[in-house]
Amino acid sequence: MTKQKRADMLLVLVTAFWGVSYLMLDICLEDIPPFNLNAIRFISAFALLGVIFAGRIKNPSAQTLKYSFYIGLCLTATYICVTFGIKYTSVSNAGFICALPVLFTPLFLFVFYGKKPGAKLFISLLLCAVGMALLTLNEKFVPAKGDIICLGCAVFYSFDLIITEKAVSRPDVDPFALGIYQLLTVGVLMLILSFIFEKPHLPTTTKTWIYSLFLGIFCSGVCFLVQTTAQKWTTASRVGLIFTLEPVFSAFAAYFFAGEKLSLRGYAGAAVMLISLLICETDIGRFFHKHGKEA
């Protein structure tokens, strides 16, 4: 198995964990305020990985620490949006909207770096806008407050992906240490915000303890470490395609474990959004050309 295929398979597993995490977030927020929950999540992730890999990350380069801080800022904004957003919308809606970095990333690369994305991005964006309208607008054509907040998650995570891709391409940046130190940045920032705006406390129920630690150890610690290191061995477009599976996993989790169902219009919107993501990240013309030759 090639390194790229191994990286892609690991990213599929990461996407599954992230898809399920929306349901766990929703449950934990019944007990713990948002900044407090994220502080527990990211500090526990850093504490575990920092102890296990202390020898490997003890002498990080200045560039590794610098990019860890930049990416940590993006992740902090990302998780503020997703955690507050999911309080005011459904798990399924949050999953689909938070998967939009796959569209925003090439758009921002064009705006900031002049990397022309091609016509299919604009087709994807148009379809995505239609899908989001079907999924999120009510009878008065007004989106839920949570849907708008979750859109911020997609924007900030797009910046995260762009900065990560730039960082791991540098020889003076250790992707492994980068993946761990970014967790510390988010944890510290969230803890500061929690003390300013909330009354932080530990989980009060066994269920919340289990879910918050699972979110920290697996969905934050392991997943972000895998994502950061795997991105060195695969392409940005393949990462984007894999991440389109996240809303599918979140919708399945919401349906089977929370009994959450979308309206017929909502399912239609979700389907259009998923199609727009797939169009953006696959070369349809090359696919048909290749299979036409094989025929």
Share of β-strand residues: under 5%
Nearest-integer average pLDDT: 83
Question: What is the chain-wise order of helices and strands?
Answer: HHHHHHHHHHHHHH
Task: List low-confidence stretches.
Answer: none
* Radius of gyration computed on alpha carbons: 19 Å
Describe the largest sheet: none
Would you report the number of β strands? Answer: 0
Can you characterise this structure?
The protein has 295 residues and is mostly helical. It has helices at 3-28, 34-52, 54-57, 62-85, 91-97, 101-113, 119-136, 145-168, 175-197, 206-230, 236-243, 246-258, 264-281, 284-294. It has one domain (3-282). Helix 1 (3-28) packs antiparallel against helix 5 (91-97), helix 1 (3-28) packs antiparallel against helix 10 (206-230) and helix 2 crosses helix 10. The two termini are 28 Å apart. The mean pLDDT is 83.
